[in-house]
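Q: Okay, next protein. This is DUF2088 domain-containing protein from Desulfovibrio porci. I've checked the sequence twice, so it should be correct. Can you predict the 3D structure?
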Amino acid sequence: MSLRMYRVTQRFDAAAVADPGAEVRRAFTALELPAGLRPGMRVAVCVGSRGIASLPELVAATVASLRGLGLKPFIVPAMGSHGQACAEGQTALLKSLGVSEDSMGVPVAADMAVEELGRTESGARILFSREALKADWIVPVARIKPHTILSAAVQSGLCKMLVIGCGKHAGAQEYHKFDICSQLLPAAHFLLQRLSILAGVAVVENAADRLCEIRLVRPERFIETDTELLLLAASRMARLPLDALDLLIIDKIGKDICGSGADLNITGKWRRDGGPRVPDYQWIAALDLTDASHGNALGMGSIDLISERFRRKIDYKATTINAVTCGQLRSGRTPICLGTDRQLLETVLNLLPDPMQARVARIRTTRDLDCFWASAACLAELRARPGVRVDGEALELRFTDRGDLLPPA
């Protein structure tokens, strides 16, 4: 294969929190403690399935701060149906992210049982983790960012973690029977009034996958904080500075990167929802599934092509549970599998009138866009973009003897 690609770098706002753990501890020191907080009370620290930057440090600092107040923290997985919708799977998923009983020094209470606390006006049952309800206080740890489905002022964040994450499998399934966008805020309002929430740890990542904002907020400010930080998160997100491609190669997709495996804010929401083809990427090929996904390949339905090594990693049970729970059945469809990486790329390029003039880009994941690779046909557009630099000479794609695409030199 003679396709040659150029290394491209982007310059983003690199401002980041130097020591996330220290920032969390400082915030707890300044927190206005609620009346009724007494030593010995149990606190459920709710942690999700996303690969948040510095997650082990965030959780460890939260646990240490609560202990410093004389409280007894424990961890509750707050991830809806992820981890095969079972306690063992959710515990294993957290462990793969660096959060476990051994690493944190506190129990992980992963039971999937929920209690019904009420209903929304639309009739959706408001369900919440029974383990978390056993605690005297609750502290969610959540990342605020644009969601691939939600389009309201509140998307991924503290409210969604309470409603969907802490609703476990049954709760996630219940809300997705309705219009999730219309259920999120009413359910969040209900829970915020009903639950004993000590505070929430809200974080935002920058384009370099580092934390740029950490806030510890009381529950009365959850909705305000989710709304405010969503704007910051959107402004700090990386983008792929190409409006149209013949082929986008993604080295890896996965649930630890985004709920949809590949972030549709990058690849185009039209691939799931229809509408204008913006950005207009004709074909997308995913070559591998992250190990941290534990076989859950939800979102692959928005991908056109996968390799055989990707297909071998798919856990169809985990993927189906997630797809059915969230009502996104198409997201669980298996794309066309075209053998090795080499065979896949050769097949796609041979579909084009002139492979040497093909507009092709290669990214590591949809979360790692500070450095990517592009073919010669993309260079004019890239050089016209502010903050974008084309580096050095073109390099040919390299493969292993078995046809796997190698990392760029």
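A: Here is a summary of the prediction. The radius of gyration is 22 Å. The chain is about 30% helix and 20% strand.
Q: Noted. On to the next one.
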